[in-house]
Amino acid sequence: MLRRLIGYSQKVFRLSTRLIASFTDRRPEPRISTATVAKAAMVMFWARMGSLNALEMSGASRFWKHWLGQPMPSADTMGNVHSKMDAGTLREAIHQVYGGLKRNKALPDNRGISLAIVDGHESHASDLRHCAGCLERTIHGRPGDRIQYYHRQVTLLLVTGAPSGRQPLRLPLDQEAQRPGEDEVATAVRLLERVLVRYPRAFDLVLADGLYAPASSTSCWNTINTYWRSSKMNVGISIKMPLGCSIRFPPFREPIERGLASGGTSATWFRGRR
Length: 274
Ligand SMILES: [Zn+2]
Hints:
274 residues; alpha+beta; binds zinc ion
């Protein structure tokens, strides 16, 4: 299965020669290329190995010599290179994957609407290890309060329609790390400002959870609204209510805040089609 996946990716997306070959990082004189490290990490996720140590332990397999063209980097090297990897080249590779899928008509819409979901995710938490980018929270426990360090990022996920009998494709287009001292909505605004420029036609509807609902997320809404207005699109809004029903307003021409007054549990924004 892994070999088929690699074969498909090489053929359709030119994974090694085009996508991954462009990756760079901040090491001044790298002995092991960024592409080698990325190729190893990609298989780690595909094979669901779970950790860099598990990956290192599989290093004796002949597969690696064939796939990487050199021995497997150590777990320390893998971690070090990823911490210095240039996010811009990664984003560009995702954009190329998106472009390829779009050209191949592999991103069908959902009953006429292209959907994107914006949401925050925590990748890991620790009581001991932390870095300058860590967020902190106080955990109240029996032995007393303690500080926990964690990272959260806001991801924008494209969700396609599903042909009958098949799962919809879920393609993460971009993500942004939440910085210390800011809330998730502020991170989402930064993410959307970048995504809306890079993917101007990728989605018509943005779905978000209650955190982004009207009162707290005027800034988030304004970002989308301003962009879609400047691209001369009609703007509408749909608010998802409890029990699964949703209210959809027609495209607005007045300030959007007025339409957001009916507190739902989650808010979605969409761009009306002409
Ligand atoms: Zn950290």
